[in-house]
Amino acid sequence: MKVLIVGGYGTFGARLARLLAHDARLTLAIAGRSLAKAEAFCAGLDAQAGLGPVVMDRDGDVAAVLAAEAPDIVVDAAGPFQLYGRDPYRLVRACIEAGANYLDLADSADFVVGIEAFDATAKARGVFVLSGLSTFPALSSAVVQALAGDLDRIEVVRAGVAPSPWAGIGPNVVRAISSYAGKPLSILRGGRRVGAPALIDDLSRTIAPPGGVPLRPIRFSLAETPDLALAERQWPGVREVWTGAGPTPGLLHRLLSCLAWLVRLKVVPTLEPLAGLFHWGTRVFRWGEARGGMFVEVEGVSGEASVRRSWHLVAEGDDGPFIPSMGAAALIAEAASGVTPEPGARPAVHALTLTEYEAQFARFDIAAGRRDEAPAGGEPLYRRILGGAWDRLPEAVRAMHDLDGQMTAAGEGAVERGRHPLARLVGGLIGLPPAADRVPVTVRFTERDGVERWTRTFGRSSFASTQEEGRGPFGRLVVERFGPVALGLALVAEEDRVRLHIRRVSVFGVPLPASLWPRLDTVESVDPVGRFRFDDRVTLPLAGLLVRYRGWLVPARQPVELRNRK
Predict the structure, then answer these.
(1) How many domains does the chain have?
(2) What's the 3-state SS for 470-500?
(3) What is the pTM of this model?
(4) CB 328 within 8 A of CB 103
(5) Are residues 422 and 522 in the same domain?
(6) Domain containing 549: what range?
(7) What CATH number corresponds to the domain at position 194?
(8) Is 404 left (phi over 0), alpha (psi -120 to 50) or beta?
(9) pLDDT above 90: percentage of residues in the chain
């Protein structure tokens, strides 16, 4: 099967080629305006598929190229689709006339919706033409379909994507965003169509796959996607649909939003002339974690109950930019196996299921999962934070955190204390126990209104802390408080244990820079005889070890109901 990728050495076309390069059933024609760039890309690609560079200008004689290459499938991965000019579908028409199937990675609402005009001619020629086979709307629609599940109706859909600051945003993506920044986008809100300013209308979310390390809270700004235009047709009865982007660093995002106000106030007609400057800024001003993510949330009704569910994805390193190309890669692989979409032209909103996307995710360092959002205090703290990862934990670990009122656990442990004067001072203020090789341990848990109090007793020494679900900057974290110190802890579910990571620290409500954070290495697991095992090691900057305590515990429940249930 021959696949011609327009923009084949560009931001998304190159990644699509890399996704397909291992498939020996394929021949990939890497097309673009520069033969030298296409040749260089082919030379650097380790491939089992056949490869060939092709000179092609999508504004030129595309019919002649298609006649010469005779591809089975053409993928337009170039863009920006918002700026394809007066004849945006010339490549689509050429593909249909040549009898070639067509896919694209368009994220322009007008372009994706307009593809339906070619449905009859595509059917007559027996080819499929699918537009929008990208993060929006193909992946977002697949996620909404999976989240909808048993819902009687969907009322609200919100989604956002947050690229890693280190992954690199292509110039065409920046041009597309600049073309509509500050302009009103038609969105569904409160059951009616309203105009909302792009890159100004916003919301904040914390992306947190169950059992994974969440991203830090991100501000998302309204962005144009086909989901906004297709809302009523995709989800009859829906009252609100919102999609956005959360580029980082946040400071540059704020600057772009401020400039968007110049368009909204009609000071300038568009920010498109600044697209080159913006793209330069994304390559020069980079800081923060090399991680990106996506969220989708759905609110709906099941019977008489209101239901809220969400889906979260975090991609590590440079893996995130592969996601927009994964839908096309999955469909092409299926077509090579003889499974092809029905002929006709349409938006790619039902082209793939989430399960098919998950098969693509498995090739990368990508964590994703669903959360059934419960009211605060509706279930035990660790269960709420871990979501679906809770059920994967060993029974002994779950039993220790399945708190409903009051519980006491007893066992044995050892304590090691740091000797640095600062470590001794901090340990004394907290009330940490003295060093001991073997000492009886008791932990008393009490819970009220969603706040758990842990009183740990090692021998004759006791110290206490509280734990609760974080809000705002501490979103999706467990907040443990020792007096004025608040630690934001991520609960990471591994195969047979839970590991805690510090993600935020504040003192008297003032956030501390990461360089001043304590270092935490905490693991909860099961020992060889099935008991809950804890191993907590805390170190301080400059002072080294503060404390390490480890041992085992066995819970003994006391049925004292302290929670005020709603």
Answers:
(1) 2
(2) CCHHHCCCEEEEECCEEEEEEEEECCCCEEE
(3) 0.90
(4) yes
(5) yes
(6) 381-558
(7) 3.30.360.10
(8) beta
(9) 84
